[in-house]
Structure formats: C-alpha cells, structure tokens
Amino acid sequence: MRLTWNDTELEFQASIARTLDDAHVLDHVRALMNEKRPDGDHLSDKLVELGVTEAAIPEQNGGLGLGYEPICLAAFELGKRLSPFSFASTLGIGLTASLLLEDDCLANQFRALKTRCAGARLAHLGSTSLSFEKKEVCGEVSFAWDTHNADVVLVATTDRSGSPILALIELGNAGVTHTPLPSIDPTRSTAKLSFKKAPSTLLASGDRAVTYAETLMQHVDLYVAFEQIGGAISALEMACNYARERTAFGQPIGAFQAIKHRLADIYTKNEIARAHARYAADCLSHGESDTGIAVACARAAANEAFLFAAKESLHIHGGIGFTFDSDCHLFYRRARFLSAIGTPQLETLEAVASHVVTTAEGATA
Description:
Blueprint: H1 7-23, H2 25-35, H3 41-49, H4 69-80, H5 87-101, H6 107-116, E1 122-125, E2 128-133, E3 136-145, E4 152-158, E5 164-170, E6 176-181, E7 190-199, E8 201-205, H7 206-245, E9 247-248, E10 251-252, H8 257-286, H9 291-316, H10 328-339, H11 345-364
Parallel strand pairs: 1-4
Antiparallel strand pairs: 1-3, 2-3, 3-7, 4-5, 5-8, 6-7, 9-10
C-alpha cells in the first residue's frame, strides 16, 4: 500500500490548483449565491483541457491513463475552493466508459458512449422507483443532484424479469420531465426527474450491471469524500486566520484554550478523514477486496469532518459568522449539500458498523 502521492500525481494536483486560483472560484461562488443559481460551466472547458474528465481512461483509448488517484487530488482542490463545478457528475461518463473497457464484450457500448457523450455531464440519482421495458424507462426519481445543464443520466434498475440493468438516458429526450427542487446550496442543483417511456441505451445487464453500478457509486463516494476533506481544510484555515486576527481582552482569541481546543478538534477529524480517504484511494486504484468498506469509512469520516469544521468555524467567528457577508455560511451550505448526495449517511454508517462487528466476532471466535 502506498500512502504518499507520487510526482506525477502531485504535478497534476498543482496544475489543477493553479487553474482554480486563476479562476477566482470563491468570488464566483459568492456571485452565484447572490443570484441563487447553480453554474459550474465557467470551469468546465478548463478542466476538460487539463484532462480531468478522461484521466482514468487508458491512453490507447484516448485517455491520459493516469488512474484514479490523481482524480482524487483534483476533487480535493475543487473542494478546498467550494467549486460549483459538478465534478463527480462530469467525471461519471469517463468513469463509465473506463469500466466498460474492462469487458471486451462491451467495447461497442464504450465507443458509442464516448462518441455521443464526450464532455457530457451526468446527473446522479438518489431515491428511485423505475421500470425498464423494451429499452424504455418509466417512473420517477424523487431526488437527483447536479442536474443543472446535465446531458445524460445513468439508471440502475431492473427489467420485467427482475434482472438488473444499467442504462443511459439523454435528458433532452421526449418522455423526460425535469422539475428543479430547492437546495440548501443554491450553487449546486437538485431536481425531481420523471420518465414516461423515455428511450434509453442499455449498457449492461445482470451481474455486470450490479458490479458496474456498485463500482460507480464507490467512485462517486470517494471523490465526494475528497471534496469534503478539501472543504474541511479550508474551513479550518479560515477559522485559524480569524482566530489570529480577532482580539479580545488585549490578545488574539486564538490564545485562549477554548478556541485552541476547538481548532485542534477540527484538525484531528480532518486528519482522520484524510487517512481514510488516502487508504480508500489506494484500494480503489488496485482493486483490493476491502475497497467497499474502505470507501464507506472514508465517506463517513469525511461527512463528519466537513460538517464539524463548517459548524465550528462558524462559531469561532462569533456573530459575524452568522451574517451573509461572511463566507462561513458558504462552507456550511456545501457541507450539508455534500452530506446528502451519494450513498446515504445511514447506509454508510451501517456498513462501517457491520464491518466492525463482523471483524470483532471473527477475532474472538
């Protein structure tokens, strides 16, 4: 297991960081918040040029062949700056294509997917109630995220015989209804999707569909975890800077133990989450058998770290932290939004708890 990043990965991270710094992302986020609208399009072209969307696709198939770990670092940098760019969603097409490449029988689907949806954005599904028959999908998705300007949606459901299927639906097709929903973070979108005999492209069925759907969700959860860790670290930096500048009783408030302990608690949770995420990234990259539980642990730790950091940073800022002019609410909103997408928190915690119990029972048997 490798717990450090290599030079290629760090160079890729640095190029992402420079691009985001030049784009003044946080200023853009503040402007979007004032307008109460989602829009990550200003970063799309720049990140595509850097190869983020095709980093994991092998070179012989038109990608960069960098693997999955550099993508984690890109998610981290985007999270640090609260980027409104729907990273995991845009990446979803490239990830799906990369998975299809692993099976020679699905080469045609890969070519069709890469040709039709190059640079496309993927809307992710939450709670679903769908049916699939004759390559048409019916039903409703009560909660989908990153739907703003999305081109396609991946559907994991079953056909009439009960066999699992993985299909692709273009959101511009007839039979697809998109109803925006209010979001705690107006810079990221949510919606209800309704399908009425919406035409689709079947990508996989049976056990393959289950495997691909599970793997894609692991990728989504891991990249969201890195995004959360980036946000948590920025929230800590913001709190530390304020604690150095704000004075009370003739000295910076950071000199008081009550503040020191809060900052130390944020740092501790951040480092725990970072360690879990790094291990999960290594497992995912090498196809380890415990990838599922590693990703679940990373996601659980990252959820806790970002929510805790956002709330504590707000309290450390005091009264000004509760105002709209402060950036504290931006971090809190993003922390709440990210905690609601991907695998549900309760399901993640149940997976971690089940693994702990099973491991303990095995050790005492």
